[in-house]
Amino acid sequence: MENILRPLLVVGGSLVITLAVGWLVDLLLRRADGRHHETPVWGLLRLCRPPLQVVLCTALLRASFDQLRLDVVKDHRAGLGQFLTLVLIAASAWLVIRVAATVVQSSYARYATSTRDPARVRRVRTQVTLIQRVVTAVVATVAIAAMLLTFPAMRTVGTSMLASAGVVGIVAGVAAQSTLGNLFAGFQIAFGDMVRIGDTVVVDGEWGTVEEITLTFLAVRTWDERRITMPVSYFTSKPFENWSRGGVQMTGTVFLQLDHSAPVAAMRDRLRDILGECAAWDGRDWSLAVTDSTPTTIEVRAVVTAKDADDIWTVRCAVREQMIGWLRDHHPYALPRVVTSPAALPPGDHWRELTGGDTGMAASDGQTPSLDKAPRTGRG
Q1: pTM greater than the 0.70 cutoff
Q2: Burial 69-81 (b: 16+ CB within 10 A, else e)
Q3: pLDDT tens-place string over residues 136-180
Q4: Could you give the 3-state DSSP secondary structure of residue 208?
């Protein structure tokens, strides 16, 4: 009877204590969250309940499994203790990572709600994301090292490993030069405010939005939903366009190639009407001017503004489409034209000398010889 009750008391007691502590912690966090709505940390800390319960249950079992007094436990006492120790270390690392993520996310949420500058919010978001990844990497590395040191063989090898750590570090540094360069470039991007999550950038001729920044790579989502993954070192070693730097407001241009007779003054009035009906235009500024001319056309430039890169694209397309349609319907003479006229041939005598042909009466009458009677050139 004792062989049945003792395991039930040890295992069942550990589970009951774990559930009771988890319920009590969740109750206290809910009350704290209800009293302090402006601080999201209490609500986010409730996400730490699962790892906390795993840590508590594993610690209780690790401390009391010797009391089971079962033959199976006695025969595998070392292995069971090793397993519970490994689970305890892993659960503790999970709890630390979850608590750190909760604190970081709550700090970012408070900053985002109290700051109205989108550029600063994106900058803090980028820094918070990289800090969270660094903390996760460090905690995971320490946890793995601690798990390895629980094995006696690893402790024996530890001394020789420390003795050769200098040489190994040099070799690893040379071998991972590219990875380390990307790692430091990630820190430089995060804290140097070069590019942030949500920025509109142009890299390698591709226009897109920065979607993700890690310690080693950066993902850009293009306008056609493609993802361009690039090493972060690219942004620290090569020039790129950041349309969101210093603010998200944008100024765009629309160029039109028109005839010299184009009604520029009427086009200004029409541009004002078009922008007045365009919801994407932010109303900050607009203009229309002749910026260049050629022997056959003039170049008319319309300048418009919008609140971000997506809206400036919409405004430019709307202005281009409606302006060309208005010119086609009301001022077709303003559109570019290709002027053609019949070819004028030289006088008859000179034409006969050039071609070696007989122009007949057309030359003697002073008329231009017909093109149909001209000699063929051999090109068909």
Answers
A1: no
A2: eeeeeeeeeeebe
A3: 888 888 888 888 877 777 666 555 544 554 544 554 454 445 555
A4: strand
